[in-house]
Amino acid sequence: MTQIERAAVKDVLTIKDVLSETWHDTYASLLPDSAIETITSQWHAPKLLAEQMQNPDIYFAIARDEGEIAGVITARKQEDVIFVGRLYVRPQCQRRGIGTQLLEASYRAFPAVQRARLTVEAQNLKGVAFYRKQGFRETARMFEEVAGARLENVVMERSL
């Protein structure tokens, strides 16, 4: 059974491992290994993750499945919108409803919000399909330079 709980600093290294594993799985065909290593070492630095966990404006949660961390979500409220900053589920744990449970928990964390918004890399077809299934619709596209690679991001939004 999967349990959703707020992330704790004691789990920061395991969370970093989950993020690194999912980034490699998701982006290996889109980015060179050197870019993935740069991104995961900077964006998922334990000190940065710990600061985010302790920030009251950020909902930072994990999904535990059979006692192991299977997924991670971060979300931030701005006015009447939740911005989902990251949602990652270990590859071997995908297609079991964990991502949906994490999203729904983020909505409950900010009950007054009316919309949810996120960005997903356009070539991340699995991610785009998942968010569409969750009721998100494309609202814009934008390009971003990430570790020397140019990525096309899809901005998606849904009503809550």
Q: What structural keywords apply?
A:
single chain; 160 residues; Aminopeptidase; 7 strands
Please give a structural write-up.
The chain is of the alpha+beta class and 160 residues long. The chain has one domain (2-113): Gcn5-related N-acetyltransferase (GNAT) (Aminopeptidase). It is built from five helices and seven strands; from the N terminus they run βαααβββαβαββ. A seven-stranded mixed β-sheet has the order 1-2-3-4-5-7-6, with helices on both faces. A hairpin with a 2-residue loop joins strand 6 and strand 7 (149-159). Helix 1 runs antiparallel to helix 2. The protein starts with a strand and ends with a strand. The mean pLDDT is 94.
Quick take:
By secondary structure, the protein is an alpha+beta fold. The chain is built from five helices and seven strands, in the order E-H-H-H-E-E-E-H-E-H-E-E. Helix 1 runs antiparallel to helix 2.
Task: Give the topology.
Layout: E1 2-6, H1 12-27, H2 33-43, H3 46-54, E2 58-65, E3 68-78, E4 81-89, H4 98-109, E5 115-121, H5 125-133, E6 137-146, E7 149-159
Parallel strand pairs: 4-5
Antiparallel strand pairs: 1-2, 2-3, 3-4, 5-7, 6-7
Helix pairs in contact: 1-2
Separation of the first and last Cα atoms: 26 Å
Largest sheet: 7 strands, mixed
Low-confidence stretches: none
Provide the CATH top-level class.
Alpha Beta
CATH level-3 fold name: Aminopeptidase
Number of strands: 7
Strand percent estimate: 35-45%
Helix content: 25-40%
Q: Any idea what the shape is? A: globular
Q: Enumerate how many helices there are, as a single number.
A: 5
User: What's the rounded overall pLDDT mean?
Assistant: 94
Strand order of the largest sheet: 1-2-3-4-5-7-6
Task: Tell me the Rg in angstroms.
Answer: 15 Å
Q: Summarize the helix and strand pattern as letters.
A: EHHHEEEHEHEE
CATH architecture: 3-Layer(aba) Sandwich
Q: Give the CATH superfamily.
A: Gcn5-related N-acetyltransferase (GNAT)
Structural class: alpha+beta
Whole-number count of domains: 1
